[in-house]
Amino acid sequence: MSNQGFNIIVLIKQVPDIEKVRFDVETGRIDRSSAPGETNPFDLHALEAGLQIKERFGGLVTVISMGPRQAESSLKDALARGADRAILLTDARLAGADTIATAKALAAAIKKLGKFDLVLCGEKTVDGDTGQVGPEVAELLGVPHAAYVCEIREVTRDSVKVVSDMGDKYLYELKLPALLTVTRELNSPRLPTLKDLLRAKRLNVEIWTADHLSEIIPVNQLGFQGSKTKVVKVVIPSTEHRKGLILKGDDAVEKIGEIILREVAGG
Amino acid sequence: MTGILIYAEANGPEIHPISFELLGKARELAEKLGLEVWSVALGCRISDKASELIYHGADRVYIYDDERLRDLNVVAYKNVLVELVGRLSRRSSSSARLLGAGA
Questions:
Q1: Which of these, A5, A206, A261, B3, could form a disulfide with B36 (CB 3.0-4.6 Å)?
Q2: Vertex A108, ends A84 and A64: CA angle to 5°?
Q3: Residue in chain B lying closest to A143 (CA)
Q4: Residue A217 sits in a domain of what CATH number?
Q5: DSSP state of A237
Q6: Shortest CB distance from B103 goes to which of A144, A145, A166?
Q7: Per residue in A122-180, pLDDT tens?
């Protein structure tokens, strides 16, 4: 590990391919076997940003993910794209975590790794869609963060200048170490070549369990046990289509009134 | 009295419409549970927004009106909100907080 280079952490998550995945409307469950897992698309932009900074300044890109064992394939993919080190937090005791329990596990892993300059993650995941884990990790690490970063204007050894897109755009300067959550507008992720993919097959993904984190955080604060929110039920929104209705005659206005009243009462 | 606290987003001069939707939902929940609806807004020269929030269903409104809150400085905003929620929790325990998924 060089002293001058950047120590960059990228947080990624494997999600079901949202275009292909099937939902069971009756039970509200996601049938994960119906679609292969892929890396959350936003996270690839975070990884790309990390790789670009490493290429300019030197350093080390470490990718961390929490999830089931099959998430290893996303970490291998990150190694193929140029990451130096990959860690998978996987343990039944980490499962069922809400955003805060997830953030605690990820923050503990980052603390265990030691010194870092920059933590990068996608603005949100396409399955959870909360956008909370990144900022929560920043809070737990006690570092500043900028969310929805669509442009990295300037990087120096001790600060970054970024444009944050929160509807309006804001220019922020943050002291390092800091955490950024990034949007798709930030960059175009590189694709690994076949050679990279073959090379990455032989690279090692480190497997960490809750025991690896227990010196940093009590295990009962992680996973389902450590979660403040419990999912009671998942509801798949039904798609309403536009309806057309043509009314003619003198009583058309009255009929419209009736329809509106019925719709409002029904809704 | 406990209450439901709604964060009213006011990035710029206007309150984001999602905050009014949240106030409507909070009103519904409050009636059911016998709670009050509280709302908080941060910004610069936004004191006149209080009546708008009351009109949309808030029983009590906290306004933080300060030059330093003119721009969305997330750290300053966070510090103010954490302070308020802490104070309310000690005094009368706000039982739920609803935030729009905006900023």
A1: B3
A2: 30
A3: B75
A4: 3.40.50.620
A5: P
A6: A166
A7: 999 988 888 999 999 999 999 999 999 999 999 999 999 999 998 889 999 999 999 99
Distance from CA of A242 to the nearest CA of B (A): 23
Tell me if A179 sits within 8 A of A134, measured CB to CB: yes
- pLDDT mean for each 10 residues of chain B (103 residues): 87 83 93 92 90 93 93 88 87 64 51
In a domain, A121, yes or no: yes
Indicate the residue of A131, A144, A168 with minimum beta-carbon distance to B75. A144
ipTM for the predicted complex comes to 0.78
Are B74 and A147 an interchain contact pair (Cβ–Cβ within 8 Å)? Answer: yes
| Contacts with A170 (C-beta within 8 Å, 6 or more apart), sequence order | A163, A164, B71, B72
Q: Which one of B28, B72, B81, B82 makes the best mutation probe of the A interface by having the most chain A beta carbons within 10 Å? A: B72
Name the superfamily (CATH) of residues B3-98: HUPs (3.40.50.620)
User: What pLDDT, on the 0 to 100 scale, is given for residue A27?
Assistant: 67
Q: How far is CA A38 from the centre of its chain?
A: 12
A236 inside domain: no
Rounded to two decimals, the pTM is 0.84
